[in-house]
Structures are given as structure tokens and as C-alpha cells.
């Protein structure tokens, strides 16, 4: 993780679900309810950077309960896991989390026992090949649904691969 | 840096082309010339009809003035290349052992000295194209096996590596990060045991 990496900053601004363990006065705007308190036990989506601080700090001194409890993110949901198992290249990462891979890295630092890292590696392997395939044919008008499913990191991959492919082709065909 | 991003950590195909022009190649000159000492390499004394090794760029200049014939490298013929193609088909997990700059050399020689190559140049071109395509397919399939630690590149040429380098590096970098992140507490204790 680098301080100046914009993708990293954007990834940590992704919202993740969590549950408040106490009333939080004045924070109602997080729920779209400005001016009011967040009642205890309500489920709210907060940005990752906020959640990661809240979940590590106890509510009171000498208390083992934290401010919030983390809920299940969309990439841990069984729906998502099954979708990956069926076909990694048809999962809409862009819709789920535009910074999926960065978020998984951040998330795994909080939850060490979860398998989401390995799952993301498998997914990346499968999609990398698909991305390379598409990038190699990108001189034709690209009008494919697959490109809309890529997360931000995969988009940079695609750009790089198609750029290089273009250069090499240009060299091969030139005199 | 002022260079655009894609030129910073990677070579352009044209640059690789340029690099391979310093490769030595055998020529049969049609005139005599004293030797010239160059920085890094030299042009030996040339005598008519006596074979000598000179850098490819010198050979190309002489060739363009019709002052020499280029002896094509021994791998640049139909029989050898077809044999390589068969080998590529037989071993789907290996690359055949072509020289590290086979693409550049064959392209240069076919473009500038096609009359010195024994076989018909369109046949050579098509078998080179076949070779390139079958190797590209293998590279693509290799992407599926990519992991965070290592990658096998045996017998891949500079041009082919250059073509995939930024892509592979980025994927491997990300896989490495994910791998670090996916280590559970027990894994880390296991690592500690080995030390």
C-alpha cells in the first residue's frame, strides 16, 4: 500500500457494511438521515477507512466490544463465490466493487482468517488470460460486454496489453 | 520523466530491431577493404569472395550498395523452421529453441536480402507467421498458470518477452500483494517454523 497511490485511496473509500454497537449521535447522515443519531444495532454502510478505525477501537476502556462489527462484504457473499466458481470471466466486478483487488488486500489485513485473497488470485488468473485475448484483438471495433465488467486495475491491464500489441503489430507490418 | 509511460520500463519493437542489428553475420564481399576498428566491434579486412563476419548493420549497408552477399543464418531455412514448428506442436508446454532474436533477424533479412535466402520468401514468411502464432497461443495459455513467484520463459525471444512484460509484471505484482494478504495467521506461523 502506498500513500500516493490514487487507486489505493479510492479503494479505501469503498463502502462496506457494518453494524453499530452503540448509539452514534449526529452521524445520521451516513444513513441518509441527517441531523439524527444512528441507533444501536443498525446496519450502515461506511467507507473502509472509517470502518477499519472503528472496528479496532473498543467502545470503552477495558471493554472488549468495539464501536462497530463488520458485516459480510459483497465479495464474501455466497452468491459471489458461486458466481466465481461458475465462470470467473463473466462476473461483473465493476458493478460489485470497482477496486475489487485493492479492497481485498485491505480487507484481508483486517480479517486474517478469510479465504477472499486466494479466491481473488484465482479470479485474477482466469481473467488475465481473457483480458489478454481481448487486448490482442482490440484493433477491431471493441463492442464487447466483457470490457464493461472489468475492475479499474484490470482496465489498466487491458490498456497496456492492447497498446503493446498495437506497437508490435505495427513493427511487424512495417518495412 | 518526459517519456510516455509505456516507453519507460519497456523497449519499443523498433528499439529491439535496432539492438539486433549489432549481431554478427557472415557476408561474402565483392570488393576489398581495409579493416576498420569501431567502438565495441570491428569490421575485419574484407577481400572479394572471402567470407567474413561483420555486424548486421554494416552488412545491410553493403548489401544495399550491391557490394556483398549475406549468408543467412543456418536456422533461416524452410526445413529447419518447419521442423521447429512440428516440435512446437509436439510439446505443448515448451518453446522450441530458436535464437533470441529470430523474429527481428528473419524480418530484416527477408525484407532487405531476400535474394540471398535460399528458399522462397513467401513460404518462409508463412512458416514464421505460423511459428509466431503457435508461440503466442502458448504464452496465452501460460497466463492461466501464472503465479506470484516465478514464470518460465525458457527459449522465449526478446521480442516476445517484451510484448508481454508490462502485462505480466502488473498481474504478478497484484498476485503478490493478494498472496501476502491471503496468508492466514497459521501460514505465517508455518513460515516462522521453517526459519
Walk me through this protein's architecture.
The complex is a heterodimer of chains A (175) and B (195). Chain A is built from 7 helices and 3 strands, in the order αββαβααααα. Chain A has 175 residues and is mainly alpha-helical. Chain A has a 3-stranded antiparallel beta sheet. Chain A is elongated. The mean pLDDT of chain A is 82. Chain B is mainly alpha-helical and 195 residues long. Chain B has 2 domains: 1-71, Ribosomal Protein L9, domain 1, CATH 3.40.5; 73-195, Methane Monooxygenase Hydroxylase, Chain G, domain 1 (Up-down Bundle). In chain B, strands 4-1-5 form a 3-stranded antiparallel beta sheet. The longest helix of chain B has 25 residues, at 158-182. The relative contact order of chain B is 0.12. The mean pLDDT of chain B is 87. The A-B interface holds A 101, 104-105, 108-109, 112-113, 115-118, 120-121, 124-126, 128-129, 132-133, 135-136, 153, 156-157, 160-161, 163-165, 167-168, 170-172, 175 and B 6, 10, 12-14, 17, 103, 107, 111, 136, 140-141, 143-146, 148, 159, 162-164, 166-167, 170-171, 174-175, 177-185. Chain A: InterPro entries: GINS_A (IPR021151), GINS_bundle-like_dom_sf (IPR036224), GINS_Psf3 (IPR010492), GINS_Psf3_sf (IPR038437), PSF3_N (IPR055221). Chain A: This is DNA replication complex GINS protein PSF3. Chain A: It comes from Scheffersomyces spartinae. Chain A: Residues 80-172 form the GINS subunit domain.
Amino acid at each position: 500500500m502506498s500513500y500516493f497511490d490514487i487507486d489505493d485511496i479510492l479503494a479505501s473509500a469503498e463502502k462496506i457494511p457494518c453494524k453499530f454497537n452503540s448509539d452514534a449521535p449526529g452521524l445520521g447522515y451516513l444513513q441518509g438521515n441527517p441531523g439524527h443519531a444512528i441507533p444501536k444495532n443498525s446496519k450502515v454502510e461506511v467507507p473502509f477507512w472509517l470502518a477499519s478505525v472503528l472496528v479496532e477501537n473498543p467502545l470503552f476502556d477495558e471493554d472488549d466490544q468495539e464501536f462497530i462489527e463488520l458485516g459480510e462484504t459483497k465479495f464474501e457473499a455466497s452468491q459471489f463465490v458461486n458466481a466465481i466458481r461458475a465462470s470467473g470471466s463473466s462476473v461483473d466486478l465493476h458493478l460489485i466493487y470497482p477496486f475489487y483487488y485493492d479492497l481485498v488486500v485491505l480487507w484481508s489485513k483486517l480479517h486474517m482468517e478469510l479465504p477472499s485473497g486466494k479466491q481473488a488470485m484465482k479470479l485474477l488468473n482466469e481473467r488475465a488470460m481473457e483480458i489478454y485475448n481481448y487486448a490482442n484483438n482490440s484493433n477491431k471495433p471493441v463492442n464487447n460486454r466483457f470490457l464493461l465488467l472489468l475492475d479499474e486495475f484490470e482496465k489498466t491491464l487491458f490498456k497496456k496489453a492492447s497498446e503493446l500489441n498495437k506497437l508490435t503489430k505495427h513493427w511487424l507490418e512495417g518495412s | 520523466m518526459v517519456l510516455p509511460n509505456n516507453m519507460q520500463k519497456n523497449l519499443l519493437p523498433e528499439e529491439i530491431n535496432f539492438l539486433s542489428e549489432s549481431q554478427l553475420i557472415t557476408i561474402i564481399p565483392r570488393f576489398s577493404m581495409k579493416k576498420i576498428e569501431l567502438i565495441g566491434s570491428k569490421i575485419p579486412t574484407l577481400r572479394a569472395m572471402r567470407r567474413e563476419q561483420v555486424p548486421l548493420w554494416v552488412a545491410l549497408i553493403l548489401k544495399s550498395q550491391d557490394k556483398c552477399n549475406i549468408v543467412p543464418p543456418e536456422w533461416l531455412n524452410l526445413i529447419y523452421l518447419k521442423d521447429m514448428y512440428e516440435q512446437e506442436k509436439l510439446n505443448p508446454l515448451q518453446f522450441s529453441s530458436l535464437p533470441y532474436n529470430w523474429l527481428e533477424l528473419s524480418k530484416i533479412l527477408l525484407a532487405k536480402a531476400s535474394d540471398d535466402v535460399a528458399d522462397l520468401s513467401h513460404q518462409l514468411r508463412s512458416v514464421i507467421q505460423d511459428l509466431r502464432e503457435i508461440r503466442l497461443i502458448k504464452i496465452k495459455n501460460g497466463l492461466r498458470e501464472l503465479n506470484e513467484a516465478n514464470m518460465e520463459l525458457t527459449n522465449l525471444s526478446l521480442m516476445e518477452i517484451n510484448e508481454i512484460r508490462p502485462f505480466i509484471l502488473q498481474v504478478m505484482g497484484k498476485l503478490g500483494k493478494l498472496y501476502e494478504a491471503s496468508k492466514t495467521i497459521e501460514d505465517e506461523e508455518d513460515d516462522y517454523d521453517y526459519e
